[in-house]
Specification:
alpha/beta; Rossmann fold; transferase; EC 2.7.4.9
């Protein structure tokens, strides 16, 4: 396709939303192509409805495999309705979470297995994935402390309420992915002040995009 596809990943409390809010205006100044920022779960109307279902704190009875399948279903709709059309139109698509999140959260955190989660998402996406992933890394306890400190000003969802051990498994799965795919996944220390994290992310994008970054 004519466009470029880049994802941002990280455990809860890594600050992806804040980083992307500050980063996107910088990206738009440096690339000639249109920039599409989207998110998962969600990004499309049907996908957003699935997001509400997945993250609702009331859904305590949701089975881990049900959760994983819902994420994959949301992702499929999002890909077909938003990501693929934007790429076909020549946009730089930057997505807040993609398949790596499912591998980390459901495969690692829920302990249903990374390979099983990869398989269901391969079916959902047809094997399509990003050319670059920026992984914002933070210690699990520090990430949860951030969430608690900003609980009044952010969505406090079902995954935020999980134990420290759950979030440690999520981070371990992310680090395993980053080690296995160093060419695609670039790690940024998210414990730094926001301005430094944003600058580090911009540097990663500039290096990857090359002549497309002016």
């Amino acid at each position: 396709m004519a466009g470029r596809f880049i994802t941002f990943e990280g455990p809860d409390g890594a600050g992806k939303t804040s980083v992307l809010s500050a980063l996107i205006p910088i990206v738009e100044k440096h690339v000639a192509m249109p920039v599409t920022l989207t998110r998962e779960p969600g990004g499309a109307d049907i996908s957003e409805k699935i997001r509400t279902l997945i993250l609702d704190p009331a859904n305590v009875a949701m089975d881990p495999r049900t959760e994983a399948l819902l994420y994959a279903a949301s992702r499929r709709q999002h890909l077909i309705e938003v990501i693929d059309p934007a790429l076909a139109a020549g946009a730089l698509v930057i997505c807040d979470r993609f398949v790596d999140s499912s591998v980390a959260y459901q495969g690692g955190g829920r302990q249903i297995g990374e390979e099983a989660v990869l398989a269901m998402n391969h079916f959902a996406t047809g094997g399509q994935g990003p050319e670059l992933t920026v992984y914002l890394d933070i210690d699990s306890a520090a990430g949860l402390a951030r969430i608690q400190a900003h609980q009044a000003s952010r969505q406090y969802d079902r995954l935020d309420r999980e134990s420290l051990a759950f979030h440690q498994r999520v981070r371990a799965a992310y680090l395993k992915l980053a080690k296995a795919e160093p060419a695609r996944i670039k790690t940024v220390d998210a414990s730094q002040p926001l301005e430094q994290v944003v600058a580090a992310c911009a540097k990663v994008l500039a290096a990857h995009l090359g002549d497309s970054w002016q």
